[in-house]
């Protein structure tokens, strides 16, 4: 057991944090971080940890509470200040034993240089997002942290701990390790809970708020229930609820027979299941096993069902063959492509009819886009738009003059297809048949053109070049390059599948 793990265990005991002797903390000195493994079999329903809320680092528990609240800071910004403050006072911090376990920062694109962002992320879903994030977070520091430094409220601590680089580092830790705890505490750093690594759709544990009571109508609705998995973004968006973890490594667990031990004590150790008062304590959080873990296996949490762009953005890693990966095609790119064939006026008019028929893309801040799923299938709203772009003028004029504003996508499709198939009996009962009817030769060619445009964003290297580079890359020694290549390859595979999808021939109308 490493020195920092021993120090962390002593600190947890001093804070009243209880954990099962079935958990072993593995410290990978080569850069793999800390993982959690099972020393003996853990069964569904087993309580493996109880964490007092006061042991969590939040705005409410930090010594910087007054400074943060007087400055009107909240959420990730306020928590980042709390984290910087506690780190600045060293051993005087109540979380010194926990903070010594954390890296200075997580390897998120947020803390990469702009050159690295351009080098590793060009063409990916993250490239533009990370540049915007870095600008916004710098502005946050300038507008909110600098006034605190200038106010003299931090004269008793090392002001170097509140520099812009330190703020970015703190934001990376808050992004990758914080949980929303409850309405009072908001969200914060939850020691022990942030050691479990992520595994999509195969988590072994859930982190729950055990309070069975609600003091007001505004109390957290998840009290007494499992809190949904999820994490907040690098931006100032309000985060989701309780859950988190980091990196994996190998270790050799020791077999232990007694499954009821907590904190190294014997069978008479009182747990929250034995003590009704502790079980009903609204200040406690619990970690419960929800899927069996065999002895020697790693114990996983899940950060939610996210594609690699979101995982790298928020947590600094990716998963090969991630079934939740997507690629986006911006509406702006579709309009530019259409305008290159017809005209800007023509394209705007067709988009206007598309909106009149109740359609829109996905919206994120200042952009509107269409998702291409991991199997290469485009969002139906994109197919509808392309179909409208190629409508004959006579059909377009008729629809534009006679169709009222529509809000139901099924009705939209029926209106469109009834024009082309008015003299034929067409089955619109299944999504597959609807998509097939929308997928005319012109729409398929348009999808291929959009695939070419999207593919061009990655530069001159082919997908084969990226795959070969990924095979030669070390996940530990070249972490930035490795995870950016996983992201690039996964996105480019989706574009390749989009081409396959677009190459399918449309089916003939089926008779009812």
Automatic annotation (TrEMBL):
Keywords: Methyltransferase, Nucleus, S-adenosyl-L-methionine, Transferase. Residues 21-304 form the SET domain. Residues 229-246 have a biased composition (Basic and acidic residues). It is an enzyme of class 2 (transferase). GO terms for cellular component: nucleus. This is N-lysine methyltransferase. InterPro entries: N-lys_methylase_SETD6, SET_dom, SET_dom_sf, SETD3_SETD6_MTase. Its main location: nucleus. GO terms for molecular function: protein-lysine N-methyltransferase activity. It comes from Papaver somniferum. Its EC number is 2.1.1.-. Belongs to the class V-like SAM-binding methyltransferase superfamily. Histone-lysine methyltransferase family. SETD6 subfamily. Transmembrane segments: none annotated. Gene3D superfamilies: set domain protein methyltransferase, domain 1. One of its GO terms (biological process) is methylation. Residues 247-261 have a biased composition (Polar residues). It is found in: Nucleus. CDD domains: SET_LSMT (cd10527). Residues 217-228 have a biased composition (Acidic residues). It comes from the Eukaryota. Residues 207-279 are annotated as: Disordered.
């Amino acid at each position: 057991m490493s020195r920092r793990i021993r120090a962390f265990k002593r600190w947890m005991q001093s804070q009243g944090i209880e954990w099962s002797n079935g958990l072993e903390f593995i410290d990978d000195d080569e850069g793999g971080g800390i993982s959690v493994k099972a020393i003996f079999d853990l069964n569904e329903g087993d309580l493996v940890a109880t964490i007092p809320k006061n042991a969590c680092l939040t705005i409410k528990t930090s010594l910087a509470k007054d400074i943060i609240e007087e400055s009107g800071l909240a959420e990730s910004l306020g928590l980042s200040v709390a984290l910087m403050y506690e780190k600045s006072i060293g051993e005087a911090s109540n979380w010194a034993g926990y903070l010594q376990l954390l890296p200075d920062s997580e390897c998120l694109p947020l803390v990469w240089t702009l050159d690295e962002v351009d080098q590793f992320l060009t063409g990916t879903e993250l490239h533009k997002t990370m540049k915007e994030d870095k600008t916004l977070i710098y502005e946050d520091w300038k507008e909110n942290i600098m006034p605190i430094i200038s106010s003299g409220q931090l004269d008793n601590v090392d002001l170097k701990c509140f520099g812009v680089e330190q703020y970015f580092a703190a934001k990376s830790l808050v992004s990758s390790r914080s949980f929303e705890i409850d309405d009072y505490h908001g969200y914060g750093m939850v020691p022990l809970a942030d050691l479990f690594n992520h595994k999509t759709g195969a988590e072994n544990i859930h982190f729950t708020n055990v309070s069975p009571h609600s003091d007001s109508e505004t109390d957290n609705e998840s009290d007494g229930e499992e809190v949904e998995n999820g994490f907040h973004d690098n931006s100032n968006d309000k985060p989701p609820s309780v859950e988190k973890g980091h990196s994996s490594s190998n270790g050799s667990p020791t077999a232990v027979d007694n499954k009821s031990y907590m904190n190294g004590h014997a069978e008479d150790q009182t747990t929250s299941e034995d003590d009704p008062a502790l079980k009903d304590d609204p200040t406690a959080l619990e970690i419960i096993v929800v899927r069996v873990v065999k002895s020697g296996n790693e114990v996983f949490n899940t950060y939610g069902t996210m594609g690699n762009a979101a995982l790298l953005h928020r947590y600094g890693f990716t998963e090969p063959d991630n079934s939740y990966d997507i690629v986006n095609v911006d509406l702006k790119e579709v309009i530019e492509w259409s305008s290159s064939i017809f005209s800007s006026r023509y394209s705007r008019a067709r988009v206007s009819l598309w909106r009149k028929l109740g359609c829109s893309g996905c919206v994120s801040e200042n952009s509107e886009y269409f998702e291409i799923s991991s199997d290469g299938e485009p969002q139906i709203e994109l197919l509808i738009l392309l179909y409208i772009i190629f409508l004959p003028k006579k059909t377009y004029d008729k629809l534009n003059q006679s169709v009222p504003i529509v809000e139901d996508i099924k009705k939209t499709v029926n209106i469109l297809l009834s024009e082309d198939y008015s003299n034929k009996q067409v089955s619109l009962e299944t999504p597959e048949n609807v998509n097939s009817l929308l997928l005319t030769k012109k729409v398929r060619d348009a999808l291929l053109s959009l695939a070419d445009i999207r593919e061009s964003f990655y530069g001159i290297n082919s997908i084969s070049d990226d795959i070969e580079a990924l095979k030669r890359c070390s996940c530990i020694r070249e972490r930035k390059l490795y995870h950016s290549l996983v992201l690039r390859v996964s996105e480019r595979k989706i574009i390749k599948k989009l081409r396959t999808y677009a190459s399918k021939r449309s089916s003939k109308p089926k008779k009812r």
